[in-house]
Design a protein that fits this description.
Elements (H helix, E strand, L loop, with lengths): L15 H4 L14 H8 L7 H33 L8 H46 L2 H5 L3 H19 L1 H23 L1 H8 L2 H38 L1 H6 L3 H53 L5 H42 L10 H7 L13 E8 L9 E8 L4 E5 L6 H8 L7 E6 L2 E2 L5 H6 L1 E4 L10 H5 L8 H10 L3 H5 L18 H15 L3 E5 L7 H15 L3 E5 L11 E5 L8 E4 L12
Parallel strand pairs: 3-8, 3-9, 6-7, 7-8
Antiparallel strand pairs: 1-2, 1-4, 4-5, 9-10
Helix pairs in contact: 2-12, 3-4, 3-7, 3-12, 4-6, 6-7, 6-9, 6-12, 7-8, 7-12, 9-11, 9-12, 11-12, 17-19, 19-20
Adenosine-5'-triphosphate binds next to helix 5 and helix 14.
Length: 610
């Protein structure tokens, strides 16, 4: 969170003063070219390309119909209007109507196919990016702001669709229109058409100038959109803290500041977009006037009919917006490139922890098999670990083993690495040195999925979702029947409490399960762990935040939960430690003897640390 607000916050509508442009944010130019961004995301269109092809083909049909209609208009002008021959009107008029209907149908089919292809592409790309993010270790999330990630998954992914989906279709359509209308203009009078083409480079230069500026503004807009989302997400997720500490105004100011940056970038984009149209319009008008002037002279000289001139002018009137559109597409694509840069960055991050492929596993241990249901023997063999962004090791020379069904208590001062031990066992990270074994197999030789099937972790804060009680208990075993769910709830001593809820097992638990108390959340989490029924259990401070009566109440369900499972109980709370448990006392990782295994802990005495 930021420091205290530096200037008073206006909680009403932002004043004119506040809406004045703030200090210009540093330009954030995308680091990838449009071509590279396109190459990166084009493969994701596999399976939907046919929609884009249909979109382009039907748009071309519509453009051909328009070209033919204009030809008919010229014909009607010369053959019907100039000669006042009404009988010659009906056939071209009917043909024109037919062309208009065909063009209408073709436009509809083309636009619809493009939209379907674009939406499917969006769905697929978002799924892929989300699936990729889920392969990354918790380390990635600890270093990122969730709101920004959400913006990348929604707005930025949408922008990419503009690049490789609808934007591409529009590009082809526009190029086809330029070719047809220019071809028709050349067909009528090639020399006059050449005059009109003299102005085309002016369009292209203007577009290039605008696109470069637009791209810069778009990159800033994408960035501030992500930051704004982060502020909203953080602030809403921590509302109780915000309100308890009277930080509403400061939070509103944070959002306002980020919103102002976003506003600036958007206003710049809108200004460029709005300016491009009139500038192009002026160029277009100059061209039309040149054509009319030269055309009038040609008519006077008898080298061109009025119908010919009107049709020619109409072709050019269609041609220039198409050329102008090319510039507009360049602006949209620039925006898309800014978004694609942010999505590509995420896709290029590789998880520090990966599943070994089969040959590598074979090199390591010819007998290694992915675990199905393990017996639950856990061994740490001389394990060292340093967090990626830290220079000092957190764990050094950690060795211990737990037999199937045994309880190992892990204690030691705060920050010494107890929770880290659990993260290593679940392969959120891999040790820097040493090995962790499950049933004698190095856990790096198992798939992460198989490993995690065998381990259930209960973290310091019981994490619940916003679904119902039933959904939350069945989270680790979605196929569980109601009987199993109820049995788990009874064992966790939470069934009676659930019976008092308005919709019993169908009661929604609210955002992060906040509609129930800490102790109730804890027991629901126990029921979830019981239902999952894995052979290894890691309990990270299961009593955190509970008062003595509540803690006493969950002791019995906790014992039931641990019974028959290899349990690593991380705790400072001596009430939890049974007489017979082996205790590991972690000390600061300064030397090889910093970890001590105490055989038995008695009389609630604190184990000594070496
Ligand atoms: N993702 C991370 N990146 C870098 N350092 C980390 C990370 N997570 C934890 N640490 C550091 O590693 C050390 C061990 O943290 P850990 O959470 O394992 O301690 P702990 O013994 O469980 O503490 P507590 O009893 O307070 O829960 C701490 O110094 C902590 O700051």
């Amino acid at each position: 969170m930021r420091g205290p607000a530096e200037r008073p916050v206006n909680q009403e509508e932002p004043s004119e003063e506040e809406l004045k442009p703030m200090a210009q944010p540093p330009p954030v130019a995308p680091t990838v070219s449009i071509r590279k961004a396109f190459q990166q995301f084009w493969p994701y269109t596999h399976g939907v390309r046919r929609f884009f092809v249909i979109g382009v083909l039907f748009a071309i049909v519509a453009a051909v119909c328009e070209v033919a209609s204009i030809g008919l208009f010229g014909f009607i002008t010369d053959e019907v209007l100039s000669r006042q021959a009404l009988e010659a009107f009906w056939v071209p008029a009917l043909a024109w109507l037919g062309l208009a209907i065909v063009a209408g149908i073709a436009s509809f089919v083309g636009a619809y196919a493009t939209a379907v292809g674009g939406e499917r592409f969006l769905l697929r790309l978002r799924d892929k990016v989300f699936a990729h993010i889920q392969t990354l270790t918790p380390d990635f999330f600890e270093n990122r702001r969730l709101g920004d990630l959400m913006a990348r998954l929604t707005d930025d992914v949408e922008a990419i669709e503009e690049l490789v989906g609808s934007g591409l279709v529009r590009l082809f359509m526009t190029i086809a229109s330029v070719i047809f209308f220019a071809g028709a203009a050349f067909y009528i009078r090639w020399d006059l058409a050449l005059v009109t083409f003299v102005m085309v480079p002016a369009f292209l230069l203007v577009s290039k100038y605008f696109a470069a500026k637009f791209r810069n503004a778009a990159a800033r807009e994408r960035l501030s959109n992500g930051t704004m989302n982060s502020v909203i997400e953080e602030s809403l997720a921590n509302q109780s803290l915000v309100q308890a500490y009277n930080r509403q105004k400061a939070e509103a100011k944070r959002l306002h500041d980020e919103g102002s940056t976003w506003l600036q970038a958007n206003v710049t984009q809108a200004r460029l977009s709005a300016l491009y149209g009139p500038v192009a319009q002026v160029i277009q008008t100059i061209c039309l006037l040149v054509i009319l002037g030269v055309g009038a002279w040609e008519i006077v000289e008898g080298r061109l009919t009025i119908g010919g001139l009107l049709a020619f002018a109409a072709y050019v009137a269609y041609l220039y917006p198409a050329v102008q559109n090319l510039g507009q597409i360049a602006l949209t694509v620039s925006e898309a490139a800014a978004g694609s840069d942010r999505v590509m960055e995420i896709l290029q991050i590789r998880s520090a922890v990966t599943d070994r492929d089969a040959p590598a596993a074979t090199d390591r241990d010819a007998t290694a098999q992915p675990a199905t249901r393990s017996h639950g023997r856990v061994e740490f063999v001389d394990v060292d670990f340093t967090y990626p962004n830290r220079s000092r090791p957190t764990l050094r020379h950690l060795s211990f083993s737990a037999d199937p069904g045994e309880l190992i208590v892990c204690t030691g001062p705060s920050g010494v690495g107890k929770s880290t031990l659990a993260k290593l066992l679940l392969r959120f990270y891999d040790p820097s040195a040493g090995q962790i074994l499950l049933d004698g197999v190095d856990i790096r030789d198992m798939s992460r999925q198989a490993l995690r099937e065998n381990i259930t972790i209960l973290q310091q804060e019981s994490l619940l979702f916003s679904g119902t009680v039933r959904d939350n208990i069945a989270y680790g075993r979605p196929d569980a029947g109601m009987d199993d769910i109820v049995r788990a709830a009874v064992t966790a001593d939470v069934h009676d409490f659930i019976g008092t809820l308005p919709q019993q097992y169908d009661t929604p638990l609210g955002q992060r399960g906040r509609l129930v108390s800490g102790g109730q959340r804890q027991r629901i989490a126990f029921a979830r762990a019981i239902l999952r029924d894995s052979p290894v259990l890691v309990l990270d401070e299961p009593m955190t935040g509970l008062d003595s009566p509540t803690a006493a109440r969950i002791m019995e369900p906790l014992r039931r939960l641990m019974s028959g499972r290899t349990t690593i109980l991380i705790t400072h709370d001596l009430r939890l430690i049974p007489e017979t448990a082996r205790t590991i006392v972690l000390g600061p990782a300064q030397g090889p003897d910093s970890i001590r295994i105490e055989p038995v802990k008695r009389n609630g005495a604190t184990p000594r640390r070496v």
